[in-house]
Amino acid sequence: MQFSFLIVTAGLLSCIVNTSANVHCGRNPMGVFKRLVFEESNGTIDPKFALGQLEIREPRTYTRLLKSHRDWLLCIQKTETGYFKRAAFDSSQRTPTSIYGTFEND
Question: Where is the signal peptide (predicted)?
Fold first, then answer.
């Protein structure tokens, strides 16, 4: 069975590099890996099998894939919980300090 791990790895590394934990979380690295496996094998290789082979043949790339997937999940979680909205809130803006409507800089 010939499977081009070099092509998949090259595409995977570009995905890992381009995914960063910011407001726009980028694409799911695991989804990109599965799509690359499907496209390169014309649907004949199971992505779970390819992931196992990646772990055996290229453990560093496998570890980077899992780390980038975990970072992506954390980014999605922070985005959905409003973490980035709170972090982006400028401290110079008016913030309420009591339920009566008085503000810090009034």
Answer: 1-21
CA distance 106 to 93: 11
Instruction: Spell out the per-residue pLDDT of the chain, length 106, in tens.
Output: 445 555 555 555 555 544 444 456 888 899 999 999 999 888 898 989 999 999 999 999 999 999 999 999 888 888 777 666 666 555 545 444 444 444 454 4
What torsion do the CA atoms of 88, 24, 72, 41 make, to the nearest 10 degrees? 180
Amino acid in the structure at residue 8: V
Beta bridge partners of 103: 96
Tokens 């694409």, located at residue: 27
- What's this model's pTM, rounded to 2 decimal places? 0.57
DSSP 21: S
Pick the closest to residue 40 from 2, 14, 71 (CA basis). 2
Residue with tokens 């496998």: 62
